[in-house]
Amino acid sequence: MRITWKVATSLDGRIGTSTGESQWITGPEARAQGHRLRAAHDAVLVGVETVLADDPRLTVRLAAEPELEAKQPLRVVLDSRLRTPSFARIATASTLILTTRDPMPIGEAEVARVAGDGNNRPALEAVLETLVSRGVKSLMIEGGGRVAACFVSAGLVDAIEWFRAPILLGGDGRPGVAALNLARLAHAPQYRRLAVEALGDDLWERYERRS
């Protein structure tokens, strides 16, 4: 499975303010490209903190490009304690919620139990096995910082699609990627820049993992 991490941040790598406000950091051109990227993947994935903070739909919404809008990915939520509200916009029939608890109904979403890691969060290996069993060959991670850090630390992120807005949110803003607990620079995950493109006032940076 090919795994892409898509993130929209400020210049200093923040995905939200200290209070959690994050919509919208980037402009309409960058957001439209984000929708195109969703259409190009079999599934998109977020953690429950993103659901609680932003109430995202994670759908492809491109009225001017109906051929892409028809390509709706499977939506996946990692929710170890089943905190996704039944009224959340993502709690629809095209959503899979993965938990380490006994499943319970959440809106129209499918809820499935997977093996947990040492912190009783869905183990990445179990998550990927579940998605592969459902025919997912390409996955895009859309948030949040802790989920991104887990996949990056495990060496699972093949590509990064980074949208950077010309604003500064400061050290008290929410980081795009959580702690990686690196002791040495040599241990840092390394990526090769493929392209940089202006989208309105924002920059779209594309990276691929170094082999």
From TrEMBL:
It comes from the Bacteria. GO terms for molecular function: 5-amino-6-(5-phosphoribosylamino)uracil reductase activity; NADP binding. Signal peptide: none annotated. InterPro entries: DHFR-like_dom_sf (IPR024072), RibD_C (IPR011549), RibDG_C (IPR002734), Riboflavin_Biosynth_HTPR (IPR050765). Residues 3-193 form the Bacterial bifunctional deaminase-reductase C-terminal domain. Gene3D superfamilies: Dihydrofolate Reductase, subunit A. Keywords: NADP, Oxidoreductase. Pathway: Cofactor biosynthesis; riboflavin biosynthesis. Pfam families: RibD_C (PF01872). GO terms for biological process: riboflavin biosynthetic process. This is Deaminase. It comes from Brevundimonas subvibrioides.
